[in-house]
């Protein structure tokens, strides 16, 4: 039982692109209420459920409270754009590094489409600083975006640090929603 229907979007992305593997370290940004972390814990074997497979790590962070989840380590009441949070996150990842950064983050929508879009793009851009700190070379990132004037600028910025950037619109996203996800793979940091 997932905490939220959003789980099906990540399941769909993972089924198609195979981004979560046993033993991987995953950072889940905007993790509350925890459905993506539930998927990640299962896929990377973070609870050690499958003794035959390497055991991974899931660290989740959110401005809000997150109910505990076996196999995940949550940092609630944190702003992911705050450099102090970056340092703290590193401390919870093995070797201070993640294989995958997930972000289903969204600001509280004010209803003004362009303004909401700009605020979400700003959040996504801050993930590039985070990636610089924690993402392994070759690692990947998934981040939610709402369509708007800055979408292609964000895509360009992602392409400057990842070798491969795709736009993914999971079937589980409501048809009328302007939401899509960037899947950025092969982080170029050396
Ligand atoms: N993926 C989650 C799941 O499956 O349970 C749902 C995430 S929900 C759509 C978006 C979350 O992003 C909210 O809980 C919100 O508090 C969080 N968020 C927004 N801005 C944030 C920030 N600056 N730092 C951390 N979390 C943030």
UniProtKB/TrEMBL annotation:
GO biological process, one term: mitochondrial large ribosomal subunit assembly
Catalytic-site annotation from UniProt: 144
Subcellular localization(s) per the UniProt record: Mitochondrion
GO CC terms in record: mitochondrial matrix
Catalytic activity line of the entry: uridine(1369) in 16S rRNA + S-adenosyl-L-methionine = 2'-O-methyluridine(1369) in 16S rRNA + S-adenosyl-L-homocysteine + H(+)
Record-annotated Ribosomal RNA methyltransferase FtsJ domain positions: 2-187
Keywords, comma-separated and alphabetical: Methyltransferase, Mitochondrion, rRNA processing, S-adenosyl-L-methionine, Transferase, Transit peptide
GO molecular function, a single term: rRNA (uridine-2'-O-)-methyltransferase activity
Similarity remark: Belongs to the class I-like SAM-binding methyltransferase superfamily. RNA methyltransferase RlmE family.
Record's function text: S-adenosyl-L-methionine-dependent 2'-O-ribose methyltransferase that catalyzes the formation of 2'-O-methyluridine at position 1369 (Um1369) in the 16S mitochondrial large subunit ribosomal RNA (mtLSU rRNA), a universally conserved modification in the peptidyl transferase domain of the mtLSU rRNA. This activity may require prior 2'-O-methylguanosine modification at position 1370 (Gm1370) by MRM3. Essential for late-stage assembly of mtLSU required for efficient translation of mitochondrial DNA encoded proteins; methyltransferase activity is not required for this function.
Entry protein name: rRNA methyltransferase 2, mitochondrial
Organism of this sequence: Denticeps clupeoides (denticle herring)
Positions spanned in the full protein: 78 to 267 of 267
């Amino acid at each position: 039982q997932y905490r939220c229907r959003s789980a099906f979007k990540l399941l769909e992305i993972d089924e198609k692109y195979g981004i979560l593997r046993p033993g991987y370290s995953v950072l889940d940004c905007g993790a509350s209420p925890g459905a993506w972390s539930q998927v990640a814990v299962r896929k990377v074997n973070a609870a050690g459920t499958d003794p035959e497979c390497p055991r991974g790590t899931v660290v989740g962070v959110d401005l809000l409270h997150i109910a505990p989840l076996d196999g995940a380590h949550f940092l609630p009441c944190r702003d992911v754009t705050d450099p102090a949070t970056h340092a703290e996150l590193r401390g919870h990842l093995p070797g201070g590094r993640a294989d995958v950064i997930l972000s289903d983050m969204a600001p509280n929508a004010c209803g003004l489409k362009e303004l909401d879009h700009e605020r979400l793009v700003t959040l996504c851009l801050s993930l590039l600083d985070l990636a610089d700190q924690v993402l392994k070379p070759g690692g990947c990132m998934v981040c939610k975006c709402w369509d708007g004037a800055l979408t292609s600028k964000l895509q360009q910025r992602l392409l400057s640090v990842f070798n491969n950037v795709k736009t993914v619109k999971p079937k589980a996203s409501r048809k009328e929603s302007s939401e899509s996800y960037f899947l950025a793979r092969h982080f170029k940091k050396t």
